[in-house]
Amino acid sequence: MKSLDELLDRFRVEPGQKCRLKDYNPGWQGDEDRPEDERREYAAKVLEESVAAVSEAQELLYAADTWSVLVIFQALDAAGKDGTIKHVMSGVNPQGVSVASFKQPSAMELDHDFLWRCNAALPERGRIGIFNRSYYEEVLIVKVHPELVAAQRIPNADPDRKKFWKARYASINQFEEHLARNGTKILKFFLHISKDEQRRRFLKRLEDPDRHWKFSEADLHERDFWDDYQKAYGEMLTETSTKYGPWHVIPADHKWVSRAVVAKILAREINGLKVKRPELSPEEIARLGEYRERLLNEDGGN
Known about the structure:
With 302 residues, the protein is α/β, with parallel strands linked by helices. Helix content is 48%, strand content 11%.
């Protein structure tokens, strides 16, 4: 298990170090000295065990009502965010988890600062909150398309200056540090897909009538900005991977790999909080005994 933990640490972007996406292989699928069927079988076992561990950890979170967990997923189109969330959280009680998806901001949301709409969706204590995209879009798609800043009507905003983006990174880091200080565990995953694999998945959607609904012209349009997005993601990962909110770059070309890796990291990090069920005082335990006796002595009790 130690060697598996060491392997998982390879996906973590170390705070203060420059992140170069070319150093991360999106097609990684484990020790290639072993047959693929063995690797797939091992990944399936890791996923199954981790899903069970996350489920148990969520129950403890809910009972303790102290920590909350915020899980952020960012990725280019077709990288598998929805499927990863579905599989990794498949064993969790729906009452203990929420999923928020952030798309193009509404007119009302544009009347607030860029963190506002996400702040309103944060998980309360005892719950796991998942952001399918997040405020990080403001340093990704908005950075690739800086003309979007104009719609936010920010006084003296100049997206052509590095100072503007440095300030946004700082706002995000300060926001997450505040959350961490107040009992929110933050876990961030970038599902790293290759350009060839994205193309393959787009074609699959176009060729399968049951998947047509998943494709939009906007997906193809954004693909034209592939290099710009790679640069924006690299800068974002470098600037915002911190000790209280580290990023993990997850190889996403093989879904059986990405799902197992994300599930294992989630299970490990949530269990690392060492959350325990609330302990009752001797007086409370004594009262429970009294309640039991009352129920046993009711008319018709057995």
